[in-house]
Design brief:
A seven-stranded mixed sheet has the order 6-2-1-7-8-10-9, sandwiched between helices. It has a three-stranded antiparallel sheet with strand order 3-5-4. The protein has ten helices and ten strands. It is globular. Helix 1 runs parallel beside helix 3. The chain folds into two domains: about 70 residues, Chemotaxis Receptor Methyltransferase Cher, domain 1; about 190 residues, 3-Layer(aba) Sandwich (Rossmann fold), CATH 3.40.50. By secondary structure, it is of the alpha/beta class. The protein starts with about 25 loop residues before the first helix and ends in a 5-residue tail after the last strand. Helix 10 links the parallel strand 7 and strand 8.
Length: about 300
């Protein structure tokens, strides 16, 4: 009688995460490659459990049996819509009004006053909230402007709010927030920025002047940027930290091409401007940079 010894599974064949669905290293690598290609996000294997937990819900809803099947779906032409849902599932939208308040203190005390004076004289002023999520950041910018200049919406002052996630953009565009989410807004700004929408006051909506200042648009930071004019202020916080070094350097350089000399760039607390663009910016405060001018 001839017996054969069963070959143990290779490392690539072993489940990367134990669960209801087979999830191997090959599957993780394919998902990580797609996420990097689509959004520039670097996904280390240490995030495998997070990827599994977030995408297992998608597999269940689609009736799929394994991550290999899911990868085949999102890699094909018929899976473009699901690929977008995968991207949304794997990106984190942690945000709040006036997050990292030192940036808004600087915006109010030193950055905005000369810009608003220029706007009163008929000049164009543009601000950009890159990766705006559910609107907390651009509306915080708008409230800061309105606190200094109540008729700002009547002048050529506008805030562009962009994100790759169309679902959070829709929430920002709607401008409706639970009262508990507005607790971090200073009382004076809260009164000027929000109106009660429900009879019990638990649901608030942004004021018409806030809506006039902010425009929401879909935009991929590693894709095409259709904007023609340059910006006086750019907020891009806690986003590029998810990119690899080369992608980070490219994004900083692209921001430099979109800023007026003297413009201000606000970034996340764990981020630093690096690469060719680092020679074009000077430190202006805590994780705040001033664009000196020039080309990367």
């Amino acid at each position: 009688m001839i017996t054969t010894e069963k070959r143990p599974p290779s490392q690539a064949e072993r489940p990367l995460v134990e669960g209801d669905f087979i999830f191997r290293t090959e599957d993780f690598n394919r998902i990580a490659a797609m996420l990097h290609a689509d959004a520039g996000i670097f996904l280390p294997e240490t995030k495998a459990t997070l990827v599994y937990s977030r995408l297992a819900k998608r597999l269940r809803s689609l009736g799929l049996q394994s991550f290999r099947d899911y990868c085949e779906l999102v890699a094909g032409q018929d899976g473009l819509e699901e690929r977008q849902k995968m991207l949304v599932s794997l990106t984190t939208n942690v945000t709040s009004f006036f997050r990292e308040p030192h940036h808004f203190d600087m915006l109010r005390t030193s950055v905005l006053p000369p810009l608003l004076a220029a706007a009163k004289a008929g000049k164009r002023v543009r601000l950009w909230s890159a990766a705006c999520s559910k609107g907390h950041e651009p509306y915080s910018m708008a409230m800061t402007i309105l606190a200094l200049m109540p008729d700002a919406a009547d002048h050529d002052i506008r805030i562009l709010a962009t994100d790759i996630d169309t679902e959070v953009l829709a929430e920002g565009q709607a401008g409706r927030y639970d009262e508990s989410l507005v607790q971090s807004v200073p009382p004076a700004e809260r009164r000027k920025g929000f109106l009660p929408m429900s009879s019990d006051g638990r649901i608030l909506t942004v004021t018409p002047d806030m809506r006039r200042l902010v425009s929401f648009r879909e935009l991929n930071l590693i894709g095409q940027w259709p904007m023609k004019g340059k910006f006086d202020v750019i907020f891009c916080r806690n986003v590029v930290i998810y990119f690899d070094d080369d992608t980070q350097a490219k994004v900083w350089s692209r921001f430099a091409t979109m800023m007026v000399p003297g413009g201000t760039l606000f970034i996340g607390h764990s981020e630093r401007v690096q690469g060719p663009a680092s020679n074009l910016f000077t430190t202006a405060g805590t994780t705040a940079y001033r664009f000196r001018g020039g080309k990367p």
